[in-house]
Specification:
302 residues; alpha/beta; Rossmann fold; 5-stranded mixed β-barrel; 9 strands; 34% helix; 22% strand
Length: 302
């Protein structure tokens, strides 16, 4: 697998092909980030986190941070939904360099899946090896409550085009990538160990990805439960598929923002999602900091 500066050199030596314009956009965006952040350690960052709805505060806790808005990065899509500030933030937590995506765009914002996953492609071009993806999701388990954290064990995709459709991006990954371990067992074990040390209740489950933007009907919720899903949301699946195509290790964390239709008994709203995310921010920030240090120690041992 060739990522970062090595994949950039390989791209520049390739003959012209139909995917060339998309490759060019990815590497132009990566070069822009390197030049405009002007941070030497960006080439040493192996960890990145994608912060979902209302969960962007973690990025503001980083030391020596530098940021640029998505709108200033060539070809980067910009979010239009409340709770997604749309900034790329580079910084450190106790010496560990981290690249954060503070917000994301969604398929339901009328972006195609290549645009939705473009930021992850650029992270790969920057040399990121491990990606932690967070989201706000609806709980499908009546025993759960708003504010619970769920470690994603696996996912099921509904109503969303696969982001690998079309010509394969050969320098990033194979035509038919294996998805038997979308969410790294090693990273999940580290997350569980961190949660135990913090005495933090960390649930585990399967995430169902849907297109949105309407919330699910009670009948759809019953169907998802029967198919083995524990939480449902409108993101994450496309980004993880692309990250795995590029050889990144992934970890997924869902904030159970509310209980899904037919379980909660109250009308669902995005405001409720943001309020729950805001309430859980301090706990999530502390957990992510602990997790990043554990992952950094793992990297040094390897």
């Amino acid at each position: 697998m060739l990522l970062g500066e090595r994949s950039d050199r390989l791209y520049k030596s390739m003959p012209a092909k139909k995917n060339e314009s998309y490759y060019a956009q990815i590497f132009e965006a990566a070069d822009h980030i390197r030049k405009n952040l002007a941070v030497r350690k960006i080439n040493k960052a192996e960890l990145s986190v994608l912060l979902g709805s209302g969960l962007g505060d973690f990025a503001d806790t980083l030391q020596a941070r530098r940021s640029i808005p998505f709108s200033s990065i060539p070809y980067f899509p910009s979010p239009s939904v409340a709770g997604h500030s749309g900034r790329l933030v580079f910084g450190e937590t106790e010496g560990v360099p981290i690249c954060c995506l503070q917000g994301r765009v969604h398929y339901y914002e009328n972006h195609d899946v290549r645009a939705v996953t473009f930021p992850v492609r650029v992270l790969g071009a920057l040399g990121i090896k491990r990606l932690i993806v967070t989201n706000a999701a609806g709980g499908l388990n009546s025993n759960w409550k708003a504010g619970d954290l769920m470690l994603i064990r696996d996912h099921v995709s509904f109503f969303m085009p696969n982001p690998l459709l079309g010509l394969n991006l050969d320098i990033f990954g194979p035509r038919f990538p294996d998805m038997s371990e979308c969410y790294s067992k090693t990273l999940r074990q580290l997350a569980l160990e961190c949660a135990r040390r913090m005495r933090l209740k960390l649930r585990q489950g399967v995430y169902a990805g849907v297109s949105g933007p309407s919330y699910e009907t009670p009948a759809e919720v019953r169907m998802l439960k029967k198919m083995g899903a524990d939480a449902v949301g409108m993101s994450t699946v496309p980004e993880v598929i692309v990250a795995r195509h590029m050889g990144m290790e992934c970890l997924g964390i869902s904030i159970i923002a509310n209980l899904a239709a037919g379980i909660s008994g109250t009308p669902l709203s995005h405001r409720e999602v943001l309020e729950t995310a805001q309430r859980i921010q301090p706990k999530l920030t502390k957990f992510l900091s602990s997790l990043f240090h554990a992952v950094s120690r793992l990297s040094r041992r390897q």
